[in-house]
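Students often ask why we bother predicting the structure of a whole assembly rather than each chain alone. The short answer is interfaces. A chain on its own may look different once its partners are present, and contacts between molecules only exist in the joint model. In this exercise we take two input lines together and write out one structure for the complete complex. Read the inputs first and try to guess which parts will touch.
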Amino acid sequence: MSALATALAEVSETADRLSRLSVRAHENPYTLVDWPSSVDPERDWFGTPEYVSLHGTPVWEGLDDTARRRVAFHEAAGFYSLNIHGEKALIQGLAARLYRSDLAGAAGYLHHFLDEENKHSVYFGGFCTRYARVYRSRQVSFGTDQARDVDDLLFFAKTLIFEEIVDHYNRVQGRDGRLHPLARFINDSHHREEARHLVFGRRLVTALWQAAGFDPATAAGIRADLGRFLTATWREYYHPDVYADAGLADPWDLAEAAWHAPAQRTHRRHVSADCLRFLAAADVLTEEPADAF
Amino acid sequence: MRSDTEIRAQLRTFVRRHAGDVTDDTPLFTLRLLRSVHLPELIILLERLRGAPIDVEQLRMGDFDGIDAMMARFGSLP
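Now the answer. The structure tokens for the assembled complex follow.
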């Protein structure tokens, strides 16, 4: 039996409870949103200004409110694009594990997980394709030949890291009364469903790490990969294409400067804190990924 | 856009920070000295150095499998 099968059996009560909640909260993404025919990026806020990746940098200080709203709009599309790409990888990983011979008994919640991730992308894609564009991701995978237990742990732990960071933004932006109602809705809707995924993810990663019992060398390799993944995930929030669309000059140099800006380092540390505390408590990470901050 | 000499020098700095003391023809991905989790940082570095985007949907592992391979693929704009 794989470590994942053992872990899924251990969290089955949680998965059953979350499945019932998913059935009760089931939404139709095609009828729930009344998409405006157009939006005005320079009139309305589409992202929380304090969460824009240039906030606290000299460039941000030099922008007037109209220009700041324009940056926040393109960055909202960039954030939704990150979600689309993250969810594509998640959907692929979940589908690959659905009805795997040793996991057939755990298909119930995986179906909900898959369904909900696909629906989120309908919202994110709906915004990007109507009003902006889908920005590219630089997360590329060439596949691995690692042991199945290692792949399973990395898949669910990376999913958790990605979703924990995203959810922090969703929580803040879903409640931010300054934002356009559509932006608040997309963030809030995502947060409500992600809350269930995070409960599942935290319980599963804890059980999976314990069940796998990795030897010290394998554990060290996994920790290095997860630390690198956290840094790579954050790097995607500083998107040169977003800056270029917002009319800012030298977008690559701007991305580099914003990444190193003290205010942004503090921001990343603050947003990552809950996730890192969990991973440390579960013994999955034993030290802070220094490059991320 | 930087010169090929500058791009190579900055690539060496990045690679040595993450993969240790390697030569320009060390197959970085084949030997798993670099892995997929390094790519977002590597791609954005290459884009910044060459001053042009990279089509991420057309990439293969061989494009990054060594500093020489990266220079051949991304060092000079066509």
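Check your guess against this: The domain at 4-74 of chain B is CATH 1.10.1200.10 (Non-ribosomal Peptide Synthetase Peptidyl Carrier Protein; Chain A).
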